[in-house]
Amino acid sequence: MQGQSRPLLRVISWLRAVRVLLIAPDPAPREASPLLILMVVVLALLLAILEVELHSADLQSLGLMGDAFSIDPVFKSP
Hints:
Blueprint: H1 2-22, H2 34-54, H3 56-62
Transmembrane segments: 32-50
Keywords: Membrane, Transmembrane, Transmembrane helix
């Protein structure tokens, strides 16, 4: 049993050492760039749109997405 826990303890020790190296030495809060925030918001919105498009048939079958404001077929182009 002790032989099996030795590699696990080594990995835990290594992760703790890496965590100490990754922590910033100064505790001052850092601000994110406004451009970075904008990019995150745009990418999240794009992902949401793509997910809705991908699962539109499933959403319609559940009644979550429908043709509430459908256009009369007469006005659609051929």
